[in-house]
Structure formats: C-alpha cells, structure tokens
C-alpha cells in the first residue's frame, strides 16, 4: 500500500461489520491508526484484531452511537490512545422500513437519531480537539488537512418509497456535510459525503418477504430487499451488478487521501452508475 495515511488517527463508527469494517481495514492498510466502533463489542474486537494482524494499529470503542455521552467517549478514545484526531467517518446505521401510514414515531426517531443526530454529536465532540490542533499548526506555519466523510445513500439523494425515515436522515446528512465544510474550512477540514447505491451487505442480502432480521438494542428489526426489486435494480446498474463492501470502502478512502485536500462540501454516489 502507499502509506498515504501514515500516522493519521481515524474514527470509524459502525465498523464491526460490513462496509464499516472494510473502511477500517482500508484506512489501516494505508497507515491510519483506527478507533473501531460497533454496537456490539465482539465484532468491533474482531475488526480491531484483523487490523492488528495485518500490521496496523486499532483500538475499540464499543457502544451505540445514539447513547448519551458516546460521542465524547469516541473522540476521547482516539485522543487518549493515539494522541490526536484526523479522520472521522460517520458510517453507523441501519434501516427500519415502512410506508408512511404504518411507520411509528419510534421508527422515525430511531433512524433520525442514528443517521443524523449521532453524526452531529460526534462532530460537535470533535470540534475542540480539531480547533486546538488547527490553531497550533497555523501558529507554526503548517497547513495540515483533516477529513470528515459522512455516509449518505441514493435514498437521500433521490428518495425511496418505504424509507421516509432513512431518506430524510440521509438527505439531512448532506446538509450537515455542506454546512460543516463552510464552518470548518478555517480549520483545514475537508467535509464530504459518499452516497451508496446498491451494496451487498447483511441489510440487503435477505429477502424483505422473509425472516431476515438484525438485533438493535434488544429490538429485532426486519431487513432485506425484495428479490424482484433487487433483480430490477441490478438490471438498471450500468456496471451490471451491485457493489461490494470493499468497493464502498474505496469510495470513502478517496475523500481521506491527500489528493482530496482541495475538495470539500461535495458528495459522490458509489453505485456503479445507478442513480434515482
């Protein structure tokens, strides 16, 4: 690998499984020291062990990104373990779908909390650290760029029936991205977003008509995609198939690499050419 992220400290939420795990592994492979997070400690530890086995550095900060005090603990883990904070990837999340007339207030709020409120809190907690470091560097005549990558979705860029909660949250994170690019430009922080199209993960592998579920804080939540819909989507992807978690991680890496130092407030769609 190129080592373009050597010595950088990266927080990656939701990195125990799927896309988040691959993001953590990719950043670590380029030299970043990673704070791994997952709702459950076991998958977080497994990712951290995989990073270490490949010669990288990682620590774990397990827990729900929606818990009071989590954001401060997440940031503190990076600072205490590695002495700084350079990259934040707001990746944690899940789906809890229903058409509007069947969606409960609990469903709505849970998805807004994990996809929109949690990233807001993490960035708010990171501000004192980033500000202090940026001021030190400016006083020394140094220009050091830091990176924030927020994860959105084509549901946020174009809407998706049955996902009003998820679409609203993923649209909202694009507003957060554009705003923070303007707020944190003075700190030399690039704030961008990656909107994923169809990517094969545990949230999409099962059938929406079947019994595929995930457990989130003692709740069993049905996940999956209707097989006919998935097949239809695949036919609409110019590259001919859904993406892999490794390919999704590659898109995130683009916004973490130094080549993106003059790109901020933007989003790209990682979807094989598929847009809605």
UniProtKB/TrEMBL annotation:
- Recorded family membership: Belongs to the short-chain dehydrogenases/reductases (SDR) family.
One GO BP annotation is: monocarboxylic acid metabolic process
Annotated Ketoreductase domain ranges read: 8-187
User: Entry's PANTHER family?
Assistant: 3-OXOACYL-(ACYL-CARRIER-PROTEIN) REDUCTASE, 3-OXOACYL-[ACYL-CARRIER-PROTEIN] REDUCTASE FABG
One Pfam annotation reads adh_short_C2
* SMART domains listed in its UniProt record: PKS_KR
The name of this protein is 3-oxoacyl-[acyl-carrier protein] reductase
